[in-house]
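Here is a tokenized protein:
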Amino acid sequence: MTALKVLILGVICVQLSCGREFSTLNHIRSKTPSDVQSTAAADLIKRVIGVRASDFLVSVDPSIGPKNRDTFKLVSSGAKLSITGTSGVAAAMGFYYYLKYYCGGQFTWAGQQVALPTVLPVIASPGKVVTSNDQFRYYQNVCTVSYSFAWWDWARWEREIDWMAMQGINLPLAFTGQEAIFQRVYMAMGFTDKDLESHFGGAAFLAWARMGNIHGWGGPLPQTWMDAQLILQHQIVTRMRSLGITPVLPGFAGHVPAAITRVFPQANVTRLGGWSNFHQNYSETYLLDFSDPLFSKIGGSFIKAMEYEFGVDHIYNADTFNEMTPRSNDPAYLAAAAKGVYNGLLAGDTQAIWLMQGWLFMEQGFWKPPQIKALLTGVPQGKMIILDLISELYPIYARTESYYGQPFIWCMLHNFGGTMELYGALDKVNVGPSAGRSFPNTTMVGTGLTPEGINQNEVMYEFMNEQAWRPGPVDLLDWIDSYQKQRYNGGNKFTSVAWALLKWSVYNCSDTHREHSTNVPITTRPRLVPELAPDIWYDPEQLYQAWDNMVLASATPALGNNTLFTYDLVDVTRNSLQILSSMYYRDIIAAYITTNTSQLQTAGQKMVDLLSDLDTLLASDVHFLLGTWTEAARQFSLDVNDTILYDLNSRNQVTLWGPTGQIRDYAAKQWSGLINRYYKPRWQLFVDSLVNSTKTGIPFNNVKYDQDTFSTVELPFSNDHTAFPTTTTGSSVDLAAKFHQKYRPETKSKFFSQFPRKSDRTSAFSKQLARQWGRALA
């Protein structure tokens, strides 16, 4: 190949790997001085590795890379490593790159493995240079702030911001504390505290109150909460900016307190429709008409109040119609709606950029091409950014001509409700971002993470974040082997094979399956009909073989003392037991249908025993404790009334999700305490009811069972004030081995033959597994 051809090919590859740039977005970048950013990045490294931070020389120099794309350079300087980044984020990203790929380390939600070699690995001159593909790396779903962040203090936020920076995230949502600002604006306009009590949601439900889905549920929001969150937001925004991160602040989307009809009788308002079975007492929020002069007044006042409090970064999130149907599908109305929201932002900041979640466009009954185009083109091109919220499964940019010219960010949603099923679509994430950048007339400007909840499936987030700088797809088997070595300080032959099996099974979803709690029998209220159908897209035997290998690996003392390994061991064991519940449920139903009381009692006892054992297992790791969540909520209590309120919020969100179970089990968690006190009693009552039915001959009444479950289990738990443990009991290694010995024989049941087997010797799976075994034994 000639030198000219090589040069041309290189130019083409660079063009395909990089997203579009919009001059209208040039001002969305850090204004923090380089020396402040370099100091912040150096401080981050010290928090992560302690005294070894002195082995790193950190500097920020925007000139080393292209404009609007972050670059880092790594090169040895004597015994130390020099890290230069175009920003603090870039420097932190460079540090993490070195930690992972030169030192074999990892820093995640579940913990870290950051032991450095005594002598740092050398990177000879001219060094290693990496440049991001796009301008932005976004983080958070508007729901994440409630499903996962609701009870965070500064210590937890500080660690998360460190994680963000090392992952290269430079555009995260920063929604904390906004109720105090809205309170300030509304009360200056004549609203009262009482008016706002029924408008703001409770502490665990703020995400949906902010989007107008609900109002008031979980409240009233204490003044002490709003004040504390305002202080916390100052810490969050200050730290983000010090690292060169641009926080996305909230904007006014048009949802207003019901008292607006009293304070402004002439205001043009309508009520949105109900949401998720909530009664109008908590739903049907008032929406101010976009053409009403009050819209720009409130919108502008809110932006200016935020700027006075926190400063300005010129980018704001506002979601008016998220899971809410507009009152008209007339394109002219929708264009006016978009213009109204945007003008509200401009009234407070003439350089405003509107960032909006594209989730609403998933509802194709209403949002057809004319409606989508009208909303998007109601704002000047390049003045809004769309989060293509679930690009890995449903890339909306592909059916909207790349959002009709508006810039978008390719996002991996992955998780709903913060549930915990092992799940991922690695193959789709491997190719998706590159496909977005090479789409005809692409307007892609970044990649993003938009999970509804975090603290699960960490492998998916490590991999997705690398798409920010990887030029294209990688060999996934090689990548995942590298991942487990980083995680387990080298791992061993068993962890290597275990992760190959996980990659091929739970992380190999190739259809449009969406991880969800209602696919898991143990965390779904039992019913006779329609039967709870197991939603398993992979061969369970491959998961069980991964479990085999994780248990074998746990016999190695170094791994048994590795917190990331024991976390994964518990997680794989948990999911393996979870699948067995589908078999026991099927046996319960079959025994009831044949009125075989003895078999029904046996199958029912197996289900109850499984739940007891699962609770015992989960109690061995702090990440799987209900008490970690509930006690974090209680820390904000100043008196008994606060405690009662925060108890309700923390317990209700993960169970009933509403006063009577409006979104029951959506945010289900497999946590110790929650299993024994909530899910097991529901199943015990279900089994007892079925047994009583077979004995008396009176048909099982599912409606009565639902009523009894709500009144005797679900509502009492939601209103309970029992404190749950925040410390672990038992050994994760010993318990995983014990339950593996007890339950692994159960997985040989014919029940699992209904799922397609992929492990025959001629399959691609067998070839890859053989390859992994060979690598592990080498």
